[in-house]
From TrEMBL:
Belongs to the small GTPase superfamily. Rab family. This is Ras-related protein Rab7. One of its GO terms (biological process) is protein transport. CDD domains: Rab7. Its main location: membrane. It holds the Pfam family Ras. GO terms for cellular component: endomembrane system; vacuolar membrane.
């Protein structure tokens, strides 16, 4: 039996309440979508194991309620983040306008060594809504915002129809891996398939 290296990547998902943060995570990790809106209380994480460039990776994806005040999330929420995913709803202008605040606050709270190179990813969610007729933020507008912010990668997604969700999280994992912290964990044995497990966690703060 050999020791296999597994890299833990912490990903933080931020954005206004109701944009679909929890739904995107559920679609990615559980392949499930629910119409029901259940506000996330405080902060919570789910994990998914995958292989990126032949490396075993555990994505630890932290979710939060959008209305939570940043400060009340506590330092534990931000500590050691490898990537920050910003989510807005393409049908709600305010959720797009608030991206600057989420971006700034993340940098303020997480205080990464180099804010200019810290990896962010932007997701414009709910592209399925009303067949695209209720959309108020164009793809160009979103891409312009990303270009102004050190070329943040951008994905248009639907958690409901499972559009681009896997692709977005794959990019998130790759981006986070490039920025990994020195916190690898080890397990025994060599997995012969890409495994997917779930683990519930919480924030002690
Ligand atoms: P959060 O507050 O950002 O975590 O948002 P939720 O994931 O709880 O989603 C808020 C509401 O939007 C729920 O009723 C979801 O079912 C719905 N929703 C989330 N993603 C999508 C999507 O891609 N398309 C549509 N049509 N509805 C969505
Ligand atoms: Mg939520």
């Amino acid at each position: 039996m050999s020791l296999q290296k597994r890299t833990l990547l912490k990903v933080i998902v931020l954005g206004d309440s109701g944009v679909g943060k929890t739904s995107l995570m559920n679609q990615y990790v559980h392949m499930k979508f629910s119409q029901q809106y259940k506000a996330t209380i405080g902060a919570d994480f789910v994990t998914k194991e995958l292989q990126i460039d032949e490396r075993n990776v555990t994505l630890q994806i932290w979710d939060t309620a959008g209305q939570e005040r940043f400060q009340s999330l506590g330092v534990a929420f931000y500590r050691g983040a490898d990537c920050c995913v910003l989510v807005y709803d393409v049908n709600v202008m305010k959720s797009f306008d608030n991206l600057d605040n989420w971006h700034e606050e993340f940098l303020k709270q997480a205080n990464p060594t180099d804010p200019k190179t810290f990896p962010f990813i932007l997701l414009g969610n709910k592209i399925d809504l009303d067949g695209g007729n209720s959309r108020v933020v164009s793809e160009t507008k979103a891409k312009d915002w990303c270009a102004l912010k050190e070329n943040i990668p951008y994905f248009e997604t639907s958690a409901k129809e499972d559009i681009n969700v896997g692709e977005a999280f794959h990019c998130i994992a790759k981006t986070a891996l490039a920025n990994e912290r020195e916190q690898d964990i080890y397990f025994q044995g060599i997995p012969d398939v890409v495994t997917q497990t779930e683990q519930k966690g919480g924030c002690a703060c």
